[in-house]
Every structure is written in structure tokens, then in C-alpha cells.
Amino acid sequence: ISKGPGNSKSSKSTAVPPGPPMYLDLVYIPNHSNRKNVDVEFFKRVRSSYYVVSGNDSAAEEPSRAVLDFLLEGKAQWDSNMQVTLIPTHDSEVMREWYQETHEKQQDLNIMVLASSSTVVMQDESFPACKIEL
């Protein structure tokens, strides 16, 4: 297959390049946690202490329940049980259901989900926020 200037994009954008796992402090799950761009291989290879889970569009399946399940499946294959924290940017029905239905497995895999209701108040403004210590 030619990889010339006109053919530089692969036909499958979800492919994670071969190689050893990458360890990162903070990862934003791509494309509003949509399953079109993230698979279980992503979580096997991209290992992070914190994952930001965005998406608040149930019609577009964002965040995707499948992506959250892929995290559990991928994390189960890590060679360590390091703490992982999920940071949802919105309170969604998908996230609440997944949290409740998989809570025991999350505990077994050392995964914590932060509440999305934290608020910072500064002068006359208030906004959602999350403190992360790296």
C-alpha cells in the first residue's frame, strides 16, 4: 500500500501503533469517548493515571458504554494494578449506569470515578472543576 502524500491516512483511524505500553499521567479519551475512535487496544497500550471522559450526547452515543467497558477489559490485562481515575466532564446516564453496573469490577481493577459535581466559586462566577495531583 502506497503511503504517498495523498494516502497518508490509514483506513482505520483507531489503530494503535505496535510497541510497548505507553505510561502517561493524563489522557483525554479521543472524540468524546466515541467507540469509532477507541477500542480495547487503546487501553491495553495507553496506560494513564487519569483518563478524561467527555461527551454528553446520548444520541451520538457519547460517551460510549463500549469505550467504558473497553477500559475495564484493557486495564485487566495490565501487568500492574496501578490506581486509575476517570474524570467525567458531564454527568450522563451512560456514565451513571456503567458506574453502578460495574462498580465491583472497578474496585477489583483499582479504578476510581470522580464525581462530576465539583464546583469552584471565584468572585461572581462558578464553574465545574477538578483538582488533579500528578
From TrEMBL:
Recorded superkingdom: Eukaryota
GO cellular component: cytosol; dendrite; microtubule; microtubule associated complex; neuronal cell body; synapse
InterPro entries membership: MAP1 (IPR026074)
Secretion signal span: none
Any single biological process term in GO: microtubule cytoskeleton organization
GO molecular function: actin binding; microtubule binding
Family annotation (PANTHER family): MICROTUBULE-ASSOCIATED PROTEIN, MICROTUBULE-ASSOCIATED PROTEIN 1B
Record protein name field: MAP1B protein
Lineage, broadest ranks: Eukaryota, Metazoa, Chordata, Craniata, Vertebrata
